[in-house]
Specification:
The protein is an alpha/beta fold and about 180 residues long. It has one domain: Metal-dependent hydrolases (TIM Barrel). It has six helices and six strands. It has a four-stranded parallel beta sheet with strand order 1-2-3-4. It has a two-stranded antiparallel sheet with strand order 5-6. The longest helix is centred in the C-terminal third of the chain and has 28 residues. The protein is globular, with a radius of gyration of 16 Å.
Length: about 180
């Protein structure tokens, strides 16, 4: 089943701990038949957290990626938070989503994440990821300009990626249902 029954886009969820070796070839074969996988919450994959070039390789081969708002607000823990920032910095985030499972457990809200995204890449970049690219998909069009740098991106790392500046309330949020501590 594809997004909006266009026959072109579908969500692909990776295993939590690794990226399958055959995935690059799978993405290439899909590209050959004009089907594009959208990698769901890559920032929560432990292998991508260690090496974001794994996601870059998938995107270079034709995949798109969708980060989860609660990762960007730190609600899925520090590794997912840091990885989501790196994915945004490298312009590998094409969409922002809720990963809503229920109104109580994972509510379908994006407002905090949208504000943070806007602070990171500016309002035009945020609108592109939150509104424009999703609308293009619903119409059956592949978003263009996937590797343009976000000119207004403000890095949150002070040299060492283990140190996150604690301004703008971008501190990872500890909370229940947090699989990464």
């Amino acid at each position: 089943m594809t997004l909006n029954d266009t026959g072109q886009f579908f969500l692909l969820e990776l295993p939590d701990q690794f990226v399958p070796r055959a995935l690059i070839g799978f993405v290439a074969r899909l590209k050959g038949v004009n089907v594009t996988p959208i990698i769901a919450h890559p920032e929560r994959n432990m292998a991508i957290q260690r090496d974001v070039t794994l996601l870059h390789d998938l995107v270079s081969e034709g995949a798109l990626s969708q980060i989860t708002g609660r990762s960007l607000t730190g609600e899925f823990g520090s590794p997912a938070f840091k990885c989501s920032l790196r994915i945004i910095e490298l312009n590998l985030a094409h969409f922002l989503a809720t990963d809503a499972h229920s109104p109580g457990n994972r509510p379908p809200t994006l407002s905090r994440a949208v504000k943070k995204l806007s602070k990171l890449i500016g309002r035009p970049g945020m609108k592109n990821i939150v509104f424009e690219k999703p609308q293009m998909l619903l119409k059956g069009h592949r978003p263009e300009g996937l590797f343009q740098e976000h000119p207004s991106y403000k890095p949150l790392f002070d040299g060492d990626e283990e140190t996150i500046r604690m301004d703008d309330n971008l501190t990872p949020q500890a909370g229940r249902n947090n699989p990464y501590g």
